[in-house]
Amino acid sequence: MFNKLIAAILPYFPKKFVWLFSSSYISGETVDEAMRVSKELNSKKINVTLDVLGEFIKNLDEAEANKKEYLDLIEISQRTGIDGNYSVKPTSFGLLIDKEVCYKHIREIVAKAASYNNFIRIDMEDSPCTTLEIELFRRLKTEFPANVGLVVQAYLKRTLDDIKGLADLNSPEVPLSFRLCKGIYVEPEAISYKKYEEINEHYLEDLEYMLANKIHVGIATHDKPLVEGAFELIRKYNVPKNLYEFQMLYGVTPKLRDSIVNEGHNMRIYVPFGEKWFGYCTRRMKENPRMVQDIIKAIFYKG
Ligand SMILES: Cc1cc2nc3c(=O)[nH]c(=O)nc-3n(C[C@H](O)[C@H](O)[C@H](O)COP(=O)(O)OP(=O)(O)OC[C@H]3O[C@@H](n4cnc5c(N)ncnc54)[C@H](O)[C@@H]3O)c2cc1C
Hints:
The chain is α/β, with parallel strands linked by helices.
């Protein structure tokens, strides 16, 4: 209750105060800081996916600026030799303002990544975006078969059908690539599972479909029972390492992360950075008020 209250009022606190604990979850404000964190993770045999923070935009000028930021990021990250790819949120490029403009911006980013044999993951946003983001992915996957992937959310009732609906794009040469997560937005009950057990059951059902059908999957979770369920399925289908990896958010459950890496599985960490970290952090706290305990720790440990 106390944590929830703090999470609700935190957006009104000074930025410097919020940064005290947010720095555990955000790699920094600048590309240089993101590069430093990525190198550190790479040195532990962990890949990254880089995300420039900032989601909802009000006009298409912001979309243009966001595209430029990604093009620069790709250039710098490739030059630095980072072992990693990139994640984009289509609403940052105007998905809900003009989907054609959004497509053109993301196409340019995918083309840039493709020129380095790299890869762009399209994050999945809330349900008004689901169909649009699947369409966007289908279009880009057709043109850049090896350079683009999509996120799907186990809490949406439609997800298994969505995965099956894209199966025509799967091939042994260039498999489909999904990131499977639970889903982070608050969705209506009519279209989403709400209970922890139900979400986990569907997560494993979606995962089994992907592994059984040789679809590449990023198993994105910090939930130990799901990680164990994934281990079982990987054994059951004798899945080769090039068809799956585990994924986690920067700063979350590092012990579980290291134990997965120590067992020899591939791991990729989602590394968010950018000037717009404040909105990202206050949103994360509303999702998981337990994170507020970290603020309290930060106050005591960091003065
Ligand atoms: C790499 C990656 C990319 C993602 N991309 C998307 C996306 O594109 N679209 C989308 O809707 N969602 C995305 N998510 C978020 C995801 O949908 C979940 O909301 C989030 O991962 C929490 O679910 P969980 O599977 O870890 O299980 P949970 O049951 O929520 O958590 C399990 C345990 O993990 C720990 N934990 C989980 N989250 C946090 C946190 N933020 N801070 C501290 N501890 C935590 C807690 O100890 C918790 O008990 C992504 C997640 C990851 C890991």
